[in-house]
Amino acid sequence: MSIPPEALQKLLQEIEQKAAFSQQQMGLVKAQMAAKAREQRMLQLTTSEVDALPPDTKVYEGVGKMFVFSPRDDVKQRLAAEGEELKGDTVNLEKKLHYLETTYKNSRDNLEQLFKR
Predict the structure, then answer these.
(1) Domain 5-116 architecture
(2) Rg of the chain's alpha carbons, rounded to an integer?
(3) Residue 111 contacts by C-beta under 8 Å, 6 or more apart in sequence?
(4) Cβ(15)–Cβ(107) under 8 Å?
(5) In sequence order, which residues have a C-beta less than 8 Å from that of residue 7 and are 6 or more positions away?
(6) Domain ranges of the chain
(7) The pTM is what?
(8) pLDDT tens for each residue of 7-66
């Protein structure tokens, strides 16, 4: 079975574009994962600092350009909720990265098969 040269060239371009797009998206996802890891580390540090405070210590949170008093338990709950949200985001980014890596690998495999013909 022979493929016309025009169709073969178009197929090669599509596969190359898909591979390049996947590679570009992998870089973006890895950068997002690194940012989420930094945020998670900041939350861990903040939580450990809040836990180390005596129970009667007043805690203030930044809201825009001012600081507002917040009960310590509310701050801890907010930090825990943000931590869970970050974990979910990280899991989703890992899934996306796996998908993109698979797409990139499949594109490269398809290119190799076409060149072997």
Answers:
(1) Orthogonal Bundle (1.10)
(2) 24
(3) 12, 15, 16, 19
(4) yes
(5) none
(6) 5-116
(7) 0.80
(8) 878 888 888 899 999 999 999 999 999 999 999 999 999 999 999 999 888 999 999 999
